[in-house]
Amino acid sequence: MRTRVRGWRWRANPLRRRSDVVEAWTVLAVALLLFIGVPLVGVYAAARAHDQAEGLAAAQRAQRHRVSATVVRTDPSGLPSEQTNGHASRATVRWQAPDGGARTAGTEVPSGTRRGDVIGLWLDGKGRTVAPPADGTAVWQHTVTVGTCTTLGAGLTVLVVHGAAYRLLQRHRLTCWEREWERTEPRWSHRRA
After folding, report:
1. Beta strands 118-123 and 65-74, pairing class
2. What b/e sequence results for 60-88 when a residue is b if at least 16 CB atoms lie within 10 Å of its CB, and e otherwise?
3. How far, in Å, CA of 46 to CA of 141, rounded?
4. How far apart are alpha carbons 180 and 173 in whole angstroms?
5. How far apart are the first and last CA of the chain?
6. I need a surface site. Which of 58, 67, 74, 150 has the fewest CB within 10 A?
7. How confident is the model over 115-134, as a mean pLDDT?
8. Are 99 and 149 spatial neighbours (Cβ–Cβ below 8 Å)?
9. Rounded distance between C-alpha atoms, residue 163 and residue 171, angstroms
10. Given a cut of 80, is residue 98 above it in pLDDT?
């Protein structure tokens, strides 16, 4: 029957090896990194990603403006486009430019939009159609994604490094055991070395 004594690697005893002490400190360091360090790294990365996404969204809101456009012609097939996964169709729209002239362009419109419907269209500073600026939901999705991926990556890195250190310690223990056995074995078996 095997009993396990907690903290035996920390106590001084004749069976304790230096590799046992190194392993105990390694386990403590890994525990601290996993429960304190890794979450802090994830929070820091998420905060940085949130600031960057907010800055990008603010720049997009400053550079883009919304106009009302009238659908002039829809895609003749009436089917959603392949690039939009069935949530939008292609159509030609017309809107009034700030200089008073009419502009037309092809763009994606919500599925089911018909000729004559009025839709909102986003334009950049040069009058080209662009995607709407990122909203608060997109910023938070980006923040959570970056924070989660960074946390998982940092945790995985800590565990991989711990696994490599453990294998190194085990190899060192086996080498020491072989060396000690070479000295002890002749006394047990009564053979000459």
Report:
1. antiparallel
2. beeeeeebebbbeebbeeeebbeeeeeeb
3. 10
4. 10
5. 35
6. 58
7. 88
8. no
9. 12
10. no
